Prior knowledge:
- 54% of the residues lie in helices and 7% in strands.
- By secondary structure, the protein is an alpha+beta fold.
- The chain folds into 2 domains: 12-84, Glutaredoxin (3-Layer(aba) Sandwich), CATH 3.40.30; 97-226, Glutathione S-transferase Yfyf (Class Pi), Chain A, domain 2 (Up-down Bundle).
- Strands 2-1-3-4 form a 4-stranded mixed β-sheet, covered by helices on one side.
- Helix 1 (21-32) packs parallel to helix 3 and helix 4 runs antiparallel to helix 5 (129-149).
- The relative contact order is 0.13.
- Keywords: Cytoplasm, Transferase.
- One of its GO terms (molecular function) is glutathione transferase activity.
- InterPro entries: Glutathione-S-Trfase_C-like, Glutathione-S-Trfase_C_sf, Glutathione_S-Trfase, Glutathione_S-Trfase_N, GST_C_Tau, Omega/Tau-like, Thioredoxin-like_sf.
- It is found in: Cytoplasm, Cytosol.
Amino acid sequence: MEGDKASGCDGLVLINCFVSPYGNRVRIALKRKGLEFEEKPENLAAKSPLLLSSNPVHAKVPVLLVGGKPVCESLVILEFIDEAFPGAGEPLLPAAPCARAHARFWASYVDTKLPECAGRVWRSPKGAAAVEEGKKDLVAVLKTLEAELGAKPYFAGDALGYVDVALVPFAPWFLTYERLGGFSVAAECPALAAWAERCARENGCVAKSLPEPEHVFQFVCGMRKMFGLD
């Protein structure tokens, strides 16, 4: 798979799994910048030697290989792309230091809060107390993000930015959270649900980078079956 246009950036290889919100952040950023890249799909149940050698500390996707040299951790990669290719496309982070710090805070909030409580929803056995507790905490996290979004089209204002790119790859997972947690994101957080739709509708880099929600759900069902959760 390649980005939309070449920009003199030979040697970019993204190691990713198609359902990974973290890897798909990087896909969005590369496409938004118009950078040409190769994508190597990863099977997380049988990790490849390339992944293990590229990220020996965590053995996780994504990894961006730049001329063969690995850059790891998705938020780190986003900032690397912004800094390494300043003339390509629009910047992800704002120019003002305070605004940059603000964006970093909210992206960190996403990674610190959302995956943990969402994981309790989809990784717990049916009927377990952890599912209900995870759902409650997940809705609280989403409401906090919705409050930060406010009436703005995007988190930084009028254009897709760093926090949007950090958060929107979780949107295809909303269906899985809803089905396993017994709630509706659109009912609980209508403005956030509308924001997710806007991100894909108005930004080709988003629409082209995210999996179908049903495919994510089927992937999770397979994982749950493998681990005896259903």
